[in-house]
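Project outcomes to date are best conveyed with an example. Our students and postdoctoral researchers have been running inverse folding experiments weekly, and each run begins with a structure described purely in tokens. The record below, which covers 619 residues, was selected by the lab manager from last quarter's runs and is presented without edits.
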């Protein structure tokens, strides 16, 4: 029906979506009279001038218990319909006539016994990946069952509060309104999708969980020990630590990381967290927080030797050529939102400025960027080989050995490499992984930064308690962090500086993928839990101990498990476990009050598996 610009097309789907179900007469004592009287009232109210003078719209007494509407009359007079009257007829009388007509057909089909079976209950299911790499896109589809007519969709995404694995907290953000959704995974850890489907009469919801890995799977490991801290009351991830560990399997590495997010002291303390979001096992030997103060017009970096650099942005930036053809200098002059995506195999040529001899020993190359996968060096640095009589780089014929490599992290970070003892000349930077580069400069360390190591006053492991004594020196006495575990650090902070301030986190240790565990979903609760993939006996903690210690173990199959303690002569001194156990991880306490100081051994037996470890009792 059309009235000039008030054109509206009414069909069954549109009536259903706006007004809901048909007008159902089957539960009324007089179905036909109910339908006719109802439409008479609507026509009298919205579609006529009420010339009869009947200004009261109400059902007869026997209809009152069944009449669903509370309609007040409109006394229309005059010969010409106004726009409002036209809209009333269009948007009220007509759609209800359609509903009543559908109800009449429904009554007729019921009378002659040809009503089709009702549709199944409305339901929706999300299909899509449950794991994704950061900086990739994921596609999700939906399947709707039990809907008559069209439906509307609303996709929402939520990043859970720290420590919540069920999606019970956090804020859902609307991401789409179609039957499919494509998301860019730009944040680490995990998120939930919520899809609400509505058919005009009812709505249903489905949830879908996605784990986002920040590091490479396999040898490079799931998501490595990750730094996090309090930002406006929320624990926020910054970047992984110990990033050289995959390239040095089985060896401890030293990592220096310049924190990128703002660290805000709470009172006179700074609180940090190191946690394992996925399936990594970390051996952390040492942790240190260094506070650096510089002038407000200076910037800070830390090179891979742990030297903290303070410098001023160059007024004459170096020239940077991409693959010997494209000048990208302007893109890299400052850390901002303007960056460039580089791919494996790209080569950057950096034209170094002329320096005085006294400056050459204080020269560093500083870069800012990020790389989604970090299981090998992101870039390799070389001194460029030059053609005879030509100052330009021969990028196709450079066999000079590299003098260093650098690792970017999954989130934006600043890295540096000292050029001390590097021969003069242009630099060649080989790109080993696809990455995003935002900043590149060769700077002079002006060496006026004031640094101080903050006192570590607390290190609380969420399973083992206080591990402060394990992290104060580099001695291979480790605080271990298993998948899903964390250590909360508290450092003493004395005053609020007026200068620019930066924080460098130094850590020593290593990590590797822990094949003992995998994330599995329990279908009864949809909760993701760690399910052991193999039997394993862990180091007791503390060790040495007096007089109690905790022993953790995992079993991959249901069955009989024994855990016994022996002295150095092989005599059994304690039985800690001797019973059937379900698959899972367990912790028992060993009380040694009645034993003398010395070395003891504890042995785990689970079916064909057997493993023994040593512990020391010191009284």
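After processing, the design step wrote out the following sequence:
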């Amino acid at each position: 029906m059309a009235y000039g610009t008030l054109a509206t097309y009414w069909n069954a789907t549109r009536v259903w979506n706006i007004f809901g179900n048909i007008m159902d007469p089957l539960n009324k004592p007089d179905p036909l009279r109910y339908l006719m009287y109802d439409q008479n009232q609507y026509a009298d109210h919205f579609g006529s001038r009420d010339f009869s003078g009947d200004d009261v719209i109400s059902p007869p007494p026997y209809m009152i218990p069944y009449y669903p509407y509370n309609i007040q009359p409109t006394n229309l007079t005059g010969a010409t319909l106004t726009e409002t009257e036209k809209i009333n007829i269009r948007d009220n009388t007509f759609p209800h006539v359609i509903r009543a007509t559908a109800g009449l057909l429904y009554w007729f089909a019921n009378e002659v016994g040809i009503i089709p079976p009702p549709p199944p209950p409305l339901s929706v299911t999300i299909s899509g990946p449950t794991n994704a790499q950061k900086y990739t896109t994921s596609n999700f589809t939906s399947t709707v069952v039990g809907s008559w007519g069209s439906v509307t969709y609303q996709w929402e995404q939520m990043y859970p509060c720290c420590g919540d694995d069920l999606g019970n907290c956090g804020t859902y953000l609307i991401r789409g309104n179609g039957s499919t959704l494509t998301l860019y995974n730009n944040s680490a850890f995990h998120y939930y999708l919520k899809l609400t489907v509505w058919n005009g009469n009812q709505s249903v919801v489905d949830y879908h969980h996605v784990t986002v890995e920040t590091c490479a799977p396999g040898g490079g490991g799931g998501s490595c020990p990750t730094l996090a801290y309090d930002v406006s009351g929320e624990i926020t991830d910054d970047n992984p630590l110990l990033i050289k560990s995959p390239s040095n399997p089985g060896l401890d590495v030293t990592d220096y990381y310049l924190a990128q997010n703002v660290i805000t002291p709470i009172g006179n303390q700074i609180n940090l967290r190191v946690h394992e979001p996925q399936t990594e096992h970390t051996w952390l030997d040492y942790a240190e927080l260094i506070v650096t103060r510089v002038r407000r017009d200076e910037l800070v970096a830390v090179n891979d030797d742990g030297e903290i650099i303070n410098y001023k942005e160059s007024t004459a930036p170096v020239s940077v050529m991409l693959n010997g053809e494209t000048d990208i200098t302007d893109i890299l002059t400052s850390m901002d939102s303007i960056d460039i995506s580089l791919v494996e195999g790209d080569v950057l040529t950096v034209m170094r400025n002329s320096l005085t001899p006294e400056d050459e020993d204080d020269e560093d190359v500083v870069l800012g960027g990020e790389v989604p996968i970090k299981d090998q060096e992101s870039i390799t640095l070389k001194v460029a080989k030059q053609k005879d009589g030509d100052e330009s780089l021969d990028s196709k014929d450079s066999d000079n050995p590299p003098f260093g490599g650098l690792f970017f992290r999954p989130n934006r970070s600043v890295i540096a490499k000292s050029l001390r003892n590097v021969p003069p000349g242009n630099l060649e930077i080989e790109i080993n992984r696809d990455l995003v580069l935002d900043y590149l400069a060769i700077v002079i360390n002006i060496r006026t930064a004031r640094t101080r190591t903050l006192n570590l006053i607390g290190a609380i492991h969420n399973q083992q308690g206080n591990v402060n004594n394990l992290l104060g020196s580099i001695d291979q006495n480790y605080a271990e962090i298993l998948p899903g575990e964390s250590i909360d650090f508290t450092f003493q902070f004395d005053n609020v500086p007026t200068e620019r301030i930066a924080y460098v986190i130094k850590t020593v240790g290593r990590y590797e993928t822990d094949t003992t565990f995998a994330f599995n979903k329990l279908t009864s609760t949809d909760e993701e839990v760690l399910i052991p993939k193999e039997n394993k006996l862990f180091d007791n903690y503390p060790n040495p101990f007096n007089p109690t210690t905790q022993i953790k173990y995992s079993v991959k199959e249901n069955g009989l498990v024994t855990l016994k303690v022996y002295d150095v002569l092989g005599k059994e001194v304690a039985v800690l476990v001797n019973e059937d156990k379900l698959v899972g991880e367990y912790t028992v306490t060993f009380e040694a009050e009645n034993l003398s100081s010395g070395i003891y051994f504890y042995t785990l037996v689970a079916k064909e598996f057997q493993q023994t470890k040593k512990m020391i009792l010191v009284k």
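The domain at 123-213 is CATH 2.60.40.10 (Immunoglobulin-like). The chain has a mean pLDDT of 76. The training component of this project remains on track.
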